[in-house]
Each structure stands twice: as structure tokens, then as C-alpha cells.
Design the sequence.
């Protein structure tokens, strides 16, 4: 066991992340911890690995398949964790593994869970930044969310799509299509989506 108590709600996850890189046992503990049923252990483990995935993606990249398995899990917490970690790991994806799981990842947009679909949308800018060749394909999916998402809160998901598009827009090749989509959301039944559309059009 490590010197860290993963059940500690005030744990310094930055130090935890840094130490995990040089401590194999601690690192394994974090990998196991993201599957814990204990919310604090799972959260501390995820937050630490999230930092590692941003700052040292090459270190975590060998665990790609582990997180892909989490993405395929029926457990929504596991999916959520994988959505973020895998997006960050595309920075180190020199073997182009993301192309193999593209449909698994973005297929979540077509699910019924708002949380999962929304976070896939929110992580799209990171993936596009690291995989610019996928820009057009990903934007196409986001713009077609009306036909893709199968949940009852489709209008709410659009708010997160617009939030993602706001980050993508400056370097996007499909600016006209994006603006057309956003303008059409000014009449959305979701107040959050209407507000996000207004915010986008004010800024972009």
C-alpha cells in the first residue's frame, strides 16, 4: 500500500499524480481505483490519472486498451472516466489507435444518456486539436446531433454541442454550417441551449 489514503476527500491529487509516475504500485492502485464503488476513491484516482493524461500522456498511453474497456462498460461512471482519459491520450497516439475506436467513442452520442453524450461532445475539441484530420468528420456528427442522439433530453445535449463548437470554431473549416446550426438553436426548448447559442453568436 502507498502512503496515500485514497479515501481522503482532501487528498492532493496533483502530488498523487506526480508520485504515481515514479511509483508503479501507486500507479496500479490508481488504475484499480477508477473502478472502485467508493466515490472518493474513484474520484481521487480519476482526478490524478486525468492530470497524468494531460501532462504525461506518453506515460499513460500503454494503458489505452484498459480505458477502451472502460469506455465499453455498462457502468456510466466508467464511461465518463474513459471519455476524458482517451481524449487526452490522443496527444500521444502515434499508433493511431483512436481510429480503431472512433465509432465506439462517438457512438456514445447516439445513446440515451445525457451525461455520456454531453461529455463526448465536450471532449471533441481536444480530439480535433490532437487529430486535426478528424475535424470535418467530428463536426459533422456534432451538427447532426438532432438525428443522432436518442435520449429524451436531446435539446439539452445541444447546449454542450454548442459549447464544444465554440472552441472548435476559430480553426474550423465549416464555419458557415456551424453558425447555421447555432442560429437554429435560438428557438430551442432548452433555456440552457438558447443561452449557449446566444453566447456563441456574441463571441464568434
Sequence:
Amino acid at each position: 500500500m502507498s502512503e496515500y489514503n485514497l479515501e481522503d476527500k482532501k487528498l492532493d491529487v496533483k502530488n498523487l499524480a506526480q508520485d504515481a509516475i515514479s511509483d508503479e504500485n501507486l500507479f496500479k492502485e490508481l488504475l484499480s481505483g477508477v473502478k472502485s464503488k467508493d466515490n472518493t476513491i474513484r474520484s481521487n484516482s480519476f482526478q490524478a490519472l486525468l492530470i497524468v493524461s494531460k501532462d504525461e500522456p506518453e506515460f499513460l498511453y500503454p494503458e489505452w486498451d484498459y480505458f477502451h474497456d472502460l469506455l465499453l462498460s455498462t457502468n456510466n461512471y466508467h464511461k465518463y472516466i474513459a471519455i476524458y482519459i482517451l481524449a487526452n491520450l490522443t496527444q500521444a497516439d502515434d499508433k493511431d489507435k483512436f481510429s480503431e475506436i472512433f465509432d465506439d467513442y462517438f457512438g456514445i452520442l447516439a445513446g440515451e444518456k445525457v451525461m455520456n453524450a454531453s461529455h463526448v461532445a465536450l471532449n471533441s475539441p481536444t480530439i480535433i486539436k490532437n487529430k486535426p484530420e478528424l475535424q470535418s468528420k467530428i463536426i459533422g456528427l456534432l451538427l447532426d446531433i438532432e438525428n443522432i442522439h436518442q435520449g429524451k433530453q436531446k435539446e439539452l445535449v445541444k447546449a454542450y454541442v454548442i459549447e464544444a463548437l465554440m472552441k472548435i470554431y476559430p480553426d474550423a473549416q465549416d464555419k458557415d454550417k456551424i453558425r447555421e446550426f447555432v442560429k437554429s438553436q435560438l428557438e430551442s426548448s432548452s433555456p440552457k441551449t438558447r443561452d449557449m447559442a446566444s453566447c456563441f453568436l456574441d463571441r464568434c
Remarks:
- The longest helix spans residues 39-55.
- The chain has 13 helices and no strands.
- The CA atoms of residues 112 and 124 lie 19 Å apart.
- The chain has a mean pLDDT of 96.
